[in-house]
């Protein structure tokens, strides 16, 4: 089993630490306070000089820190991997570069089952890919070889799938609150929306006034929306649904 | 147990028929071909003269047909209820008016567990409400008293929660396809998005570049989007997320 030094002490680092506990031989971090939370279970350091030898150095820092932090680890003999969806592999300054990207939204303190989280891997040579793959297979059933271009698109698609859908749910909640209706009433509908796309392509699962071009209902909905931004979103998404279905015909 | 005559033979009628099989004593429909599918399990008719006496006449027809069809049933002694989210109770022409609105997206041929589907009820008098409530309680654990104004907002919120989120997932799928990435990789993320809002208010569950005001990432995402409509949606939803979080601060 590959040995791992985890670099970083934030939210993603915490989740990776829980998943890779048996492989991690050291946690490196600048913030000594944050480091203390790891020190019960493994060795920790905030000094580059105390870094131990490992098969893999796993960089769990924010996207804009990757380039800078990776420079400090450019001398390591092991493989250096970042964990970001949007950063190209080329931003790493080590000789042996890799990416170990778990495609999930991580919430502080919320335990996740890693076995169902897709892990997207990239490495610049075959043996290094083997190390990543062994590690990923030990924690997840969904391991994929994904290059930098694909990962960029995946990350962009994830913004729609998570950030934007979540915001749409927030708007739905605000609309309910205007008439003192409990948002919980919509939860079975939201769950069924997801269940449907397990079996159907979203374009075939689409229903509603925009798909039917039911102008009367859409007009009534627009009048019912109080926030001008919500009106614009309603119009834009309805237009986009219409366009998709006209193209499909 | 209240007896029911079901009016309509479409998608929603089929789902209600399965749920209320033990109460339904007759199905009424214009389309004799469609009616035949019900005739194995109950009595059917397409003639108003053959209508039997029942506690409740349940109108499962399209929104724009409710007013017209309800006129044909204005003489019935039982309670007349429509099943629509967006139509006011006042559009019914019977003396005893009601609404029995199951808040769910119904797909033809896809069996649903009614016990978790919220049923929104409205009636113009107390005894009639009692009949609706008895019927609703017999099939669902989530029964709510919802007036016409609340139901209108709920229906509008449901367009966001279902139609718009589904369209957002379709866009995510199209983005994946541009780089031959399997949309299935996003499904654990989508499921976790929903799981999170079981415990957190969506505004507190929000993450991503728009929330962080990470202009560099948003710029890179906009460049990665090929469809001008997707660019506009990205900009509009990002702006709306920013606005929500600035107001929250």
Question: What is the CATH architecture annotation of the largest domain in chain A?
Answer: 3-Layer(aba) Sandwich
* Envelope shape of chain A: elongated
Average residue-wise pLDDT of chain A? 96
Order of helices and strands of chain A: EHEHEEHEEEHEHHHHHH
In CATH terms, the superfamily of the largest domain in chain A is NAD(P)-binding Rossmann-like Domain
Q: Percent range for helical residues of chain A?
A: 40-55%
User: How many strands in all of chain A?
Assistant: 8
Which class of the largest domain in chain A in CATH terms?
Alpha Beta
Number of domains of chain A: 2
- Number of DSSP helical runs of chain A: 10
Major sheet of chain A: order of its strands? 3-2-1-4-5-6-7-8
Q: What are the low-pLDDT stretches of chain A, counting only 5+ consecutive residues below 50?
A: none
Domain DUF2520 (chains A, B): 117-241
Organism (chains A, B): Croceivirga thetidis
Domain Pyrroline-5-carboxylate reductase catalytic N-terminal (chains A, B): 4-73
Protein name (chains A, B): DUF2520 domain-containing protein
